[in-house]
Amino acid sequence: MKLTYTVEEQGFRLQVRQWLVDNPPKQPLNSFDTQKGFEQHRQWEKTLASGNWGMVTWPKEYGGRGCNLIEWLIFEEEYYRAGAPLRVNQNGIFLLGPTLMEYGTDEQKERFISAMASGDEIWAQGWSEPGAGSDMAAIRSKATRDGDEYVINGQKIWSSRAVFADWVFCIFRTDPDSSRHHGLSFMLVPLDAEGVTVRPIEQLNGLPGFAEIFFDNVRIPVFNRLGEEGEGWSIAMSTAGFERGLMLRSPARFQQAAKNLMELYRAKRNDILDLSIEDAVVRCYMDAEAYALSTYQTASRLMNGGQIGAESSCNKIFWSELDLKIHDAAMRLLGARGELEADSEDASAELGGWLDGFLFAQSGPIYAGTNEVQRNIIAERMLGMPRK
Amino acid sequence: MNFTYSEDQLTYRDTVAALLSCEVTADSIRARWTSAQGIDANLTQQLADMGLNALLVPESCGGLGLSELDFILLAQECGRVALPEPLVENAMAATAMLSEVASSDLAAANQCQDTLKQIATGNASVACGHWINPYVNMADTSHWLLLPHGDEVHLVSTQTVDLIAQRSSDPSRRISKVNWQPSRGTKIAGGQQGAELWRSALNRGALGVAAQLIGLAESILRRAVVFTTDREQFGRPVGANQAVKHLLADCAVSLEFAKPVIARAAYAVANSPTRADWAVSHAKVAASYAALLTVRHGMQVHGAMGYTWECDLQIWMKRCWAIDKTWGDVGFHKNRIHEWLLNPNALMGAEHTFDKSGSPSDESNSQQGAG
Ligand SMILES: Cc1cc2nc3c(=O)[nH]c(=O)nc-3n(C[C@H](O)[C@H](O)[C@H](O)COP(=O)(O)OP(=O)(O)OC[C@H]3O[C@@H](n4cnc5c(N)ncnc54)[C@H](O)[C@@H]3O)c2cc1C
Asked: Closest by alpha carbon to A98, among A137, A56, A134, A126?
């Protein structure tokens, strides 16, 4: 064990920091759940790509820098430190990207990865269906082989950012006689294909942050299938491992939020009477650090040939509950002014978007697999408790 | 000792509950969100006709002369339907404050009696801009505002103030900041009397919020039970999973242990208002914890559906989040309890659970200065 950054890693940090100083994000962008904000965020992705910062872990030929996971964490730390925008293409770069690297053919990588890195193609994730939420193996939407094409029929739901996105990666049933996690395949579908209808769904904040997607005889080339027919489930599970386990929510995001919470606490602590607020903010800070430490440890283990297993479920629970705690503490510090929407006359910088974050934090224990399901996985697969 | 509500109290509650459940639906609430004033004028009149605005107003001023103990049952029902109209705040805090002045020896007593008579007939309404709250809900639909200037209490016509509208995260709330100038003509109380009026208004306001939070939370819990019974995953209702059952059972436990606390607080406010601070603070804190837990778990068991604008759950959730912080947040109220417990004369122990009103030894239990 050696818990210090190497000279190269420190140099890398300075390089990231300098680039973010030279190319400051044009803040504040509108929410990426609006048409305007989405395009602003796409523009920012292009700016990142212009410096090859779109996804640092990717090989250079795909617009990356061939960084290892520790460097990726450093990049993320600097990114959040600079207050840079949320990644509109997070489903692409953090989830589909790593999956493509592992399961894609060279042609598929060639076709999809650079366009993803450049922000030209923004991705949505289309797994859930009305009847297949926690029970994802209940997927019914079908892709039927027809020569060099698949014909898709069915419906997906809760697809984040699909309202404005360009592509969606989905799991469809390719074997009509199959059930549960057999006979599923992983497909890449352009959202402007004929027969695709996207119906926006408004979230708690009133913005259409996710969508229902209807497929009516949509034709895609066989080329758009990732991995073999019937391998969809196992590929999806590796994506889910990344989603829960490592990439989707890097620790820097929460460390920055915990730091912002401390700022708010410093400003407010003398005005508010709350016997347990000290405890709450200190715990948030400690938990954000613990999450970072755990992630560094996982990253090191993966770099030494390890795998992500059931502990990705631990991560999912930890970060989502931490996010709730951070925002709950912030709302307590803001007190009766916390209900103000940002466009209120009386809203001030101090409110700092905590309300938005508070609402979004409520969804953390639900998306990427609910925390109840994660607890089942931990109990059964990590602890070996009986299933029945 | 008898810790039950009377038949009359329960019957009146059921009558009000029946009206509210017919008239206040999720659709009608959503319709208010896009209307100019955010209230249903017909319903407002109906509630006034039933005497609800003037429930705490003495009979001599045309009111029903009932007590806070009668009112919390109704407040709970208002919460249950997520009533957007500020009935509870106005009746519990503002109107009751006027009643206190009306029955005092203050010079403004006559003026307040007249105003109360108008309120009793539904021809006027009054809202309270208490110093504990930065904003007043639906001030623009009230004719009068009670506003603080130091300890002074001013009764001000809404037409003479500037209301700076703010946007609340709860679309049912129409909150505004009040800009105004105190004048001699608007002052109805001051000094120690003013301070006392603000203090008892705070207690009644907090009690009203606590009762509403219980109703709101019970509604969320009921919706969560229905949803998890209907929604199937893995070939069975999601509510069949122990993990889901336990989330909701925890809500039920915290609600059960908040309700009697609220009843005791209402009793204290009604019977020994100068010694009610501690009981009210306990009620507000218990209701907050129970309601916020129920919001969290209630949403959790809805899965993604609970995170949508379309799902009516948001009406109840957002109300809980917003009003939880009004009339003193949990920090404020826990602190009041803490201060009181540290008082060397604090009457602690089983024999002091209930107030022995009138017994001289209880004077040391006075809440003076505990805020
Ligand atoms: C903000 C947000 C963004 C999302 N983005 C996407 C996206 O981009 N793409 C996508 O495909 N999906 C997305 N989802 C959907 C998400 O993956 C599902 O919401 C999640 O899998 C749960 O499914 P469900 O909503 O149908 O809830 P249900 O499965 O119906 O669950 C309801 C409740 O029952 C519990 N439950 C269910 N089964 C069990 C069990 N066996 N044991 C214990 N408890 C159980 C759940 O924990 C939950 O509390 C998103 C969701 C949200 C909230």
From this structure: A56
Domains in chain B, start-ordered, CATH in brackets?
7-190 (1.10.540.10), 194-365 (1.20.140.10)
| Ramachandran class of A305: left when φ > 0, alpha when ψ lies in -120 to 50, beta otherwise | left
User: Which of the residues A76, A243, A289, A339 is marked catalytic?
Assistant: A243
pLDDT at B274: 81
Q: Which residues of A touch B133 (CB under 8 A)?
A: 336
Hey, are the CB atoms on A366 and B303 less than 8 Å from each other?
yes
Q: Cα–chain-centroid distance for residue B225? A: 26
- Give the confidence band of B358 by pLDDT, cuts at 50, 70, 90: very low
Asked whether A154 lines ligand 1 (CB < 6 A), one says no
A197 - beta bridge partners?
A214
Higher pLDDT, A315 or A242: A315
Class of domain A123-231: mainly beta
Cβ-based contacts of A135 with chain B (< 8 Å): 233-234
**Chain A residues with beta carbon closer than 8 angstroms to that of B238:** 134
Residue A358 structure tokens: 């508070």
> Look-up: residue for tokens 């840079």?
A84
Beta bridge partners of A172: A185
Question: Residue A240 pLDDT more than 60?
Answer: yes
Q: Is the CB of A127 under 6 A from ligand 1?
A: yes
* Model pLDDT, residue B361: 44
User: Does residue B330 belong to the interface with chain A, where contact is any CB pair within 8 Å?
Assistant: yes
- Euclidean distance between CA atoms A117 and B76, whole angstroms: 54
State which residue of chain A sits closest to B244, comparing Cα positions. Answer: A372
pLDDT at A214: 98
B289 vs chain A: nearest CA distance in angstroms?
A: 12
Instruction: Say if CB B298 and CB B317 are below 8 A apart.
Output: yes
Q: Which of A160, A155, A122 is closest to A366 using CA atoms?
A: A160
**Which of A276, A332, A341 shows the shortest C-beta gap to B168?**
A341
Could you write out the DSSP letters of every residue in A361-376?
HHHTTTTTS-HHHHHH
A372 is catalytic: no
Distance CA(B35)–CA(A327), nearest Å, equals: 31
pLDDT average, residue stretch B20-45: 96
Q: Is A134 in the pocket of ligand 1 (CB under 6 A)?
A: yes
Check if A379 has its Cβ closer than 6 Å to any atom of ligand 1. no
B348 interfaces chain A, CB cutoff of 8 Å: no
Task: Give the global pTM.
Answer: 0.96
Gap between the Cα atoms of B165 and B148, Å rounded:
19
Every domain of chain A and the residues it spans: 7-88, 123-231, 249-382
The average confidence (pLDDT) of chain A is 94
Name the nearest CA neighbour of A86 among A73, A76, A71, A100: A76
The mean pLDDT of A317-344, rounded to a whole number, is 96
A28 pLDDT above the threshold of 90: no
Position B98 scores a pLDDT of: 96
| Contact call for residues A245 and A308 (beta carbons, < 8 A) | yes
Domain A249-382 belongs to what architecture? Answer: Up-down Bundle (1.20)
Contact in structure between A67 and A303 (CB atoms under 8 Å): no
Interatomic CA distance for residues A97 and A190, integer angstroms: 16
